[in-house]
Write a structure and sequence with these properties.
single chain, about 290 residues, alpha/beta, ten-stranded mixed beta sheet, two-stranded antiparallel sheet, 13 helices, about 15% strand
Amino acid sequence: MIELDAVWCAANPIPLPDGDTSKDGRGRILIVGGARDVPGALLLTGEAALRVGAGKVKLATIASAAIALGVAFPEAAAVSLPEEDGDIAAAAIELLLPMLARVDAVVLGPGTGDKEATARLVRGLADTDAPEVMLVLDAAAVACAGPLDAVLERWRGRIVMTPHQGEMASLLDCDKDAVAADPERAAADVARRYGAVVALKDAETVIAAPDGTMLHYAGGGVGLGTGGSGDVLAGVVGGLLARGLPPLVAAGWGVWLHGEAGGVLAKRIGPVGFLARELLPELPGLLAR
């Protein structure tokens, strides 16, 4: 197991954009998610992607939340999607599919909770030909992925999953205690099964790659266990993928940046009580460092 620390970061540097790089050249990302009871989650994910250097962000969410989200986040484009019972409706897939040809990465799942509705989205978006696009599955998009092996097969090698232990247990159809007892094995099994990089979040995070590579991050602190923290991590990873980093490097840097931002806030504010949105301004400085 490789420790995810400053030595690893130095050995896996993130290239700086050259002076002529446009916002399109810095990476375009589509973020799909949100629901009536979590209408602001995509704001955290989208801002995180921009804070790590992505050039353009498009947020696709339920129609009742899209306008407010666009006003709150003027740096991003907002797309209104059909909704049903407060979740993204199946009819949204037809609107989303043409967008895949114009982005470098997709983050699917922040702010979602209904597994059935999210599974329809994953199935509809994954069952298309987008050979250059990277995919981040977060929240319910991970929890619902258990029976979606065949659909996700064409994305093998281009997926990052960012589950907590409860979402991993749902994917594996097992008890959460079984995941907690051996998180390395759970992450490695899913990584091989889906051809994905898996960042299994907890007090200590384990990152598994399909080739058997394992990273371990022990930092961050208990304060990161707060609402919206995972949405930030998904955006960091997605933004780095959009910039062209390979999945394992994007996941490693994402976990490190997210955790180190938590460490900075723990020292300045306190070990608990800081907010997920307060992580965001810390990211560019950590990235530059």
